[in-house]
């Protein structure tokens, strides 16, 4: 997510901590007076020995928890997920490079619809051969609407505008940026089923 961890000093500042002076002032009036116990050398030795034994036990317990193997698996899995994503993006960008720009009439319809939907920048519209669905690619500089040439040739003017309006609505809702966020979440939390299910059902 986008949450941030606060500074450790903030937790300490807002924690219910009572200073030693306040505790003494609050309890000295009501509590019976007890003579302070002297910490002898023997007691001090026992205290240090007990603290050392407790620390050794905690260290032994935490060393058994497989943090390093799990962390290594997590990093390797994320690296594989990022590699797969990069390969797919490169392949798709090659497809975009081979796609031809749309005709002037299609671009004019897109510009008019973009103004109605309050899309500031008209996306690039390209036509590709092959059996692909109409889709939107959210580039860093400019979004691209990729349309199958065969499908566009079978549509009349009204159907073409409806198709363009559907793709432009994705831009107006910033859906292309949501896809980048989903990709990041899947790469980081590839092991969690909800990361894949949420991306699937959000489409």
> Number of DSSP helices?
9
Poorly predicted runs are 1-40
**Fraction in beta strands:** 5-15%
* C-alpha end-to-end distance: 19 Å
Kindly report the average pLDDT value.
76
What does this structure look like?
The longest helix has 32 residues, at 67-98. The chain has 203 residues and is an alpha+beta fold. Strands 1-2-4-3 form a 4-stranded mixed sheet, sandwiched between helices. It is built from 9 helices and 4 strands. The model is unreliable at 1-40 (pLDDT under 50). The radius of gyration is 32 Å and the shape is elongated. Helix 5 crosses helix 7 and helix 8 (175-188) packs antiparallel against helix 9 (193-201).
Secondary-structure map with pairings?
Blueprint: H1 8-14, H2 20-27, H3 41-63, H4 67-98, E1 100-101, H5 104-116, E2 124-128, E3 135-138, E4 143-148, H6 149-154, H7 157-172, H8 175-188, H9 193-201
Parallel strand pairs: 2-4
Antiparallel strand pairs: 1-2, 3-4
Helix pairs in contact: 4-8, 5-7, 8-9
Structure at a glance:
The chain is an alpha+beta fold and 203 residues long. It has nine helices and four strands; from the N terminus they run ααααβαβββαααα.
């Amino acid at each position: 997510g986008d949450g941030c961890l606060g500074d450790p000093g903030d937790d300490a500042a807002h924690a219910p901590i009572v200073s030693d002076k306040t505790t003494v002032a609050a309890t000295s009036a009501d509590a019976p007076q007890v003579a302070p116990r002297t910490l002898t050398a023997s007691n001090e030795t026992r205290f240090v020995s007990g603290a050392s034994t407790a620390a050794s036990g905690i260290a032994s317990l935490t060393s058994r928890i497989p943090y390093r193997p799990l962390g290594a698996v997590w990093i390797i899995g994320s690296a594989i997920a990022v590699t797969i994503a990069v390969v797919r993006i490169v392949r798709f960008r090659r497809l975009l490079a081979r796609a031809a720009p749309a005709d002037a009439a299609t671009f004019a319809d897109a510009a008019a619809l973009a103004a109605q939907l309050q899309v500031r920048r008209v996306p690039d519209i390209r036509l590709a051969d092959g059996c692909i669905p109409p889709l939107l690619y959210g580039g860093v500089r400019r979004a691209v609407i990729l349309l199958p040439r065969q499908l566009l040739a079978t549509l009349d003017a009204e159907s073409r505008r409806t198709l363009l309006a559907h793709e432009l609505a994705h831009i107006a809702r910033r859906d292309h940026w949501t896809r980048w966020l989903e990709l990041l979440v899947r790469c980081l939390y590839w092991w969690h089923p909800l990361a894949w299910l949420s991306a699937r059902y959000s489409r």
